Amino acid sequence: MILINTIGTFLLCFLTHFLYTWFPNPIFSIFFPVNESIWEHMKMLYTTILMYGILEYFLLKKFNIIHHNFLLTTFGKALISIPIYLIMFLPFYYNFGENMLVTFLILFITILVVNYLGAKILNLNPINYQKIMAGIFIIIVYILMGILTYKPPKTDLFFDTKEEKYGINDYLIKK
Hints:
Blueprint: H1 2-16, H2 19-22, H3 26-31, H4 38-62, H5 70-96, H6 100-122, H7 130-150, E1 159-160, E2 165-166, E3 170-171
Antiparallel strand pairs: 1-2, 2-3
Helix pairs in contact: 1-4, 1-6, 4-5, 5-6, 5-7
């Protein structure tokens, strides 16, 4: 199941990468990348894991796999994927520059790791109010993502080197 979820999530990333480009609107700008900055791709990873979680839930039910704390686990996987990816990606990026093959490999490894961790957490005893907690946390993270999309800090993580801009509308002449 871990490998199936990893491949499914990985493939879904290719769709979610372009959703804002295809359907530019304020709602999609919160969930999907609005530019090619590293941060916007973390938004894509987070959202893709949550979206794939819907399919994963039905797969777990179909195959009668224990899935205690499912929503909290899915949120945890989505959130922890961001630092896991950045820890692997940033040293390579800053030392060698952009390499799509390496970027995809790191993305795949990140998704594999969080799915492995998620599978372990699903087997733990049920946590009281996990659905409410996860729902609140998911909303808080998306509020922060919206703020960071429209008012990003002026750091490398938020800078789109391709279009020389930060966030959704902040264009620069020079970095």
